[in-house]
Amino acid sequence: MSQKWYTINTIFIGQAQFDANQHIFNCALSIILEGLSMCVYIGIEDLVANAFIELVEKSQKKEVLFSQISNYGATVVKLLLAEGKKAVLVLSEEKTNVFLHDYSEYFELFDSKEGEGFRLKQDVTVDQLWEKFRGYLSFDVMMAFMSETSVKELGV
Amino acid sequence: MKRFKDPIYGYIEIDEFVAENIIDTAEFQRLRQVIQTSYSPLYASAVHNRFVHSLGVYYLGKIVTSIIEKPDEMSELSIDLKRYKTIFEYACLLHDVGHAPFSHTGEYFYLDVGSSRDKLHQEILTLTSDASLKDEIEKRKYSAAPHELMSVIVALKIFEPLFENDGERSFFARCILGYNYFNNVDLDKSFLNCMISMLNSSLIDVDKLDYLIRDAYITGFDTVAIDYERLLKSIKIIVEDDKCKLVFSKSAVSIIENVVFAHDAERKWIQNHPVVQYEAFILKHAMEKLNNDYSLFGYEALSKSGKILNDDFKISLLSDGDVIFLMKNCFDDRLIEEYFARNKRRHPLWKSESEYKAIFKPFSGDNFEELENEFEELAKYLNYNNMSSVINDQALSALNEDIAKSEFELKADNQENKTLAKRFEKQIEQKRKHLKWLSCFKKFSEEQGIDFDFVIIKADQFNSGFGKVAFDELEIYFPELSATLKFKDVANTLSSEKSARDKFYYIFYRRKADVSVNVKNLARNLNLLAMEAYY
Questions:
Q1: Does the complex come out with an ipTM higher than 0.85?
Q2: A101 neighbourhood in chain B, CB within 8 Å
Q3: What is the pTM of this model?
Q4: CA of A80, closest CA in chain B: separation in Å?
């Protein structure tokens, strides 16, 4: 999928060159006039949920270590940066605690010899995760979450 | 002995050594130019700085060190308790010495690409030479706030002569970061963990106590009084299951309830006020640009030697004034203009959560949560797709483009994986729903005769450090019963459930003279869309 994405991007721009140019002009104007934000902010809920989508789809694994999530997120950010999109992971202990509380029907903590991490609760399906956590992702960001390079960091 | 007059605590007495070697240094004096809160747009008097806050935390820290003693059940500590109390006091004084300008807005830019704390952690490990800390950071995934990490680095570098050995440096760092000893924790280490929690925990600590009390006092915001002296003097360290544990005596229950109430009130009525939120939005934009153009947020700019920008000039001892100087001289955009000209700012369509509910609930009734979810998803889609919180033609255009990309991918991949194709289809449906919301805003702007130019901001952007849920687990000691019970079992406080899930949004618009906006139609139409999506 990730290989195709780069090809698609090129084709899309080729087919809609005029509209794309107009769009790029509008963006530039907006940035100058409005001062758009220059960053994508990735919250912990999106990072963890998308990691689990990939893990379950590819390996049926329902546990991921904190270190793996951290590396996955860092890789996602680097991929987006390579595409000209600056991204910041909004991670902190407080945010993690709030995340576990707010999404307690989906995720929980676990502890093992390898370390601590997140676990997907038994009854939660991939379809539910897609619906809850992918409906608002842009195509580009989703591709970064799905990319082989980032998913490799999850041990798959 | 030097004495500082403080409006809250009276005289704060400071040892001359501390005054001369810490407080009077350039790095500490910098904090006079770093505002403590972001409340001044709402409360004009809220211009107190991190300098006075640091002195306040130091004062409360000294109350703690005067109270806590080795539990009777323990044999002698292997550490020099008097010395470690001094280190704890230093940590209280220096806990914000590396703080970025303008409250917490810019601190995430201290981190590496990918928001990694690795580099900062590595620097701290080098400065403390604590191999155990390295292991604990990895295993426990410790992730202190960026300003805390930077404060440790600045303090250990600049004030290195204060420390006699690596053990002290490590304890100092742990106090500021809130990183407990975890490996091979004996009674001594668990005792030190209790001390660490008195400066940095998700519950009550001297940092939070000072800012709660000070912010209310300086702003003039009427809230409950917090009897900090009684609260801190109720602290006790006991031994349970061969570990030291920090508990509060039963006499503190009422004060703890007041702390919870004061925190909630500040969060709800000040931090979440639309004026405060919008200013934070503008400053975040400015900080992003500064970081993008100059990589400003790092040790270099905080130090006396400074960072050279564009071969033209140097920024050192980074403070609020430097950020304002750069905003005036290096940028030319509408949002930065709004920072200086308040009459050019957007205005909120509703000014509080109560008003927001009053507008929307008549239409949504029991389905209010579905509407809130839709707001959240729209805000996230704008962030991911447009790197922005702005709702305008450009956002509409970007969303259309994103949907087109997704549809193209769906067509291309249709034969390969039916399950995936179905998920993609559903995702595109959800994106079209967001597009409908944007179109709804556009229609609203046309009907009302205002610009199609809104900003959506989630009203919970502040990291208070309070773990509201964790408050339930606070331990209260009943000496007559020789037992500790959890706070939730002995006190009726505001439920922690609701506040953790708080996710209401403000919408800001560009006001026009002689145009009075009626938001009811927008509320009705957005509700209809939300119900359409769910049912």
A1: no
A2: 469, 500-501
A3: 0.85
A4: 10
